[in-house]
């Protein structure tokens, strides 16, 4: 996404034909190292298209992505406890299973393919 953003910033600044060095300079201004291969891929994908067309295509692709976490099923209890815990409490055996902690993957600017969520594939 950072490469696409740098490309768009360059076009908005009046550069109708940004190159790798332009994108590298924009990213470098905020402390991000530029991968020239990824920058060139964005440039090639945008070549011959106007900015409005690029944004329209990207918006279509972004709208197909999931927009959040999993939904929580509604339970009949009003106390805020999960239905299973409420049922166990009614039976007299209030058993709680230990919660499993998931390791969250730290977001990093260096990980993954940061090309714009498939906008330029």
UniProtKB/TrEMBL annotation:
Q: Where is the composition biased (Low complexity)?
A: 72-87
Q: Matching InterPro entries, A to Z?
A: P1/P2_N_sf, Ribosomal_P1/P2, Ribosomal_P2
Q: Which Pfam families match?
A: Ribosomal_60s
The UniProt keywords, alphabetically, are: Ribonucleoprotein, Ribosomal protein
Segments carrying the region annotation (Disordered) are 62-121
- Biased composition of type Basic and acidic residues is found at 88-107
Query: Among the entry's GO cellular component annotations, what is one?
Result: cytosolic large ribosomal subunit
Q: Which GO terms describe its biological process?
A: cytoplasmic translational elongation
Is Ribosomal protein included in the keywords of this UniProt record? Answer: yes
Q: Molecular function (GO) terms listed?
A: structural constituent of ribosome
Q: What does this protein do?
A: Plays an important role in the elongation step of protein synthesis.
Q: Which family does it belong to?
A: Belongs to the eukaryotic ribosomal protein P1/P2 family.
What's the protein name? Large ribosomal subunit protein P2
Source species of the chain: Rotaria sordida
């Amino acid at each position: 996404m950072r490469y696409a953003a740098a490309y768009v910033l360059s076009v908005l600044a009046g550069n109708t034909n940004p190159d790798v060095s332009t994108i590298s300079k924009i990213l470098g201004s905020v402390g991000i190292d530029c991968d020239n291969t990824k920058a060139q891929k964005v440039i090639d994908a945008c070549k011959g298209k106007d900015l409005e067309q690029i944004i329209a295509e990207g918006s279509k692709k972004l709208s197909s992505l999931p927009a959040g976490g999993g939904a929580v099923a509604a339970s009949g209890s009003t106390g805020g406890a999960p239905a299973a815990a409420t049922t166990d409490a009614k039976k007299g055996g209030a058993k709680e299973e230990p919660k499993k902690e998931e390791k969250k993957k730290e977001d990093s600017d260096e990980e993954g393919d940061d090309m714009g969520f498939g906008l330029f594939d």
